[in-house]
Amino acid sequence: MYLTPQHILLAGASGLTGEHLLDRLLNEPTVTRVLAPSRKPLAEHPRLENPVGDPAVVLPQLRGQVDIAFCCLGTTIKQAGSEEAFRAIDLDLVVAFAKRAREMGARHLIVISAIGADPKSSIFYNRIKGQMEDALKAQGWPQLTIVRPSLLLGERLEPRLAEQLAGPLSRLIPGKYHGIEVCELARAMWRLALEEQDGVRVVESDELRKLGK
Question: Top-level CATH class of 7-212?
């Protein structure tokens, strides 16, 4: 069954994927309202509500009914400054956002995780992503879609050296490890938002590329 979400809550709209997804949402004629809290102001749009400030302050103040929530929050340990700061964003803030979205009536959450996410992984990054997935599953969402993209390909305002070096190589790797264009990921997430499917669905990068074509 296909749905037409009208009221949308979006976290991470100023990031690479979130920016592309926000543009897509605001150009969808069925979408009447996008509520996108952020630390810095976003470009104004008649269908965009953009509360600005510290997430710890802004999240509890969000108001209104929403149909679906997208979570594009994410950073790197280098950008965050420490493992603790990384955990605070990629685990704690994601879980807090999802909890608030559920309180506002959202029945479907689409969240960006990472390829290789595993709560028992010896790799810190993958372990935190796996813990985040488990925490969201425990919230009891009627519909939870976890997307696990491989290396994101796109132009960032603040380029990441590792991505710049690995990007060309990732285009040559087959299967789910093949790099994915951020515009493809945004399109795939919107297509997934239109599908009604109870329970948890994990979508790996190769399927995301097909959905985003």
Answer: alpha beta
Residue 64, CA distances (Å) to 14, 33, 67, 155, 212 in order:
22, 10, 10, 33, 30
Question: Tens digits of per-residue pLDDT, 158-176?
Answer: 544 444 444 455 444 555 6
Rounded to an integer, what distance in angstroms lies between the CA atom of residue 168 and that of residue 149?
16
Exposure string for 62-76, b = 16+ CB within 10 A, e = fewer: beeebbbbbbbbbbe
The answer to whether 164 touches 128, Cβ cutoff 8 Å, is no
Provide the residue ranges of all domains of the chain, joining segments of one domain with +. Answer: 7-212
- In the predicted structure, residue 16 carries a pLDDT above the cut 60: yes
Task: Look up the pTM and report it.
Answer: 0.88
CA dist 73 and 90 (Å) reads: 7
